[in-house]
């Protein structure tokens, strides 16, 4: 299980080369956990299950479509789509303490 800061973002095109909507259940993974951008080491398209102790019993599955740069996301951090973040809290909360794992 990974742990890190959970935030939300508003992009509609990611480092994995696809367009998406903020209504999609997607995320940008921190650079460290993302690994290679392309090829066999890439996490593009993989899914993770995200939860938080702040809202026990709630979890969401998101697909990795983007990379969150080091300057915004430390190791373990996940930048969620607005739709995914709102499964836990209103956007105004800004930051969640997340736990997540690849599925």
General description of the model:
This protein is mostly beta strands and 103 residues long. The chain contains 2 helices and 6 strands; from the N terminus they run E-E-H-E-E-E-H-E. The protein has helices at 31-34, 82-85, and strands at 2-8, 26-30, 47-52, 59-68, 78-80, 96-102. A 6-stranded mixed beta barrel has the order 1-5-2-4-3-6. A hairpin with a 6-residue loop joins strand 3 and strand 4 (59-68). The longest helix is centred in the first third of the chain and has 4 residues, at 31-34. The radius of gyration is 12 Å and the shape is globular.
Low-confidence stretches: none
Report the biggest beta sheet as strand number plus sense, adding barrel if it closes.
6 strands, mixed, barrel
Number of strands: 6
As laid out across the biggest beta sheet, the strand order is 1-5-2-4-3-6
Mean pLDDT: 93
Strand content: 35-45%
- What string gives the helices and strands in order? EEHEEEHE
Q: What shape does the CA trace take?
A: globular
> First CA to last CA: what distance?
11 Å
Query: What multimeric state do the chains show?
Result: single chain
What Rg do the Cα atoms give?
12 Å
Contiguous helical run count: 2
Explain briefly what this protein structure is:
With 103 residues, the protein is mainly beta. The chain has helices at 31-34, 82-85, and strands at residues 2-8, 26-30, 47-52, 59-68, 78-80, 96-102.
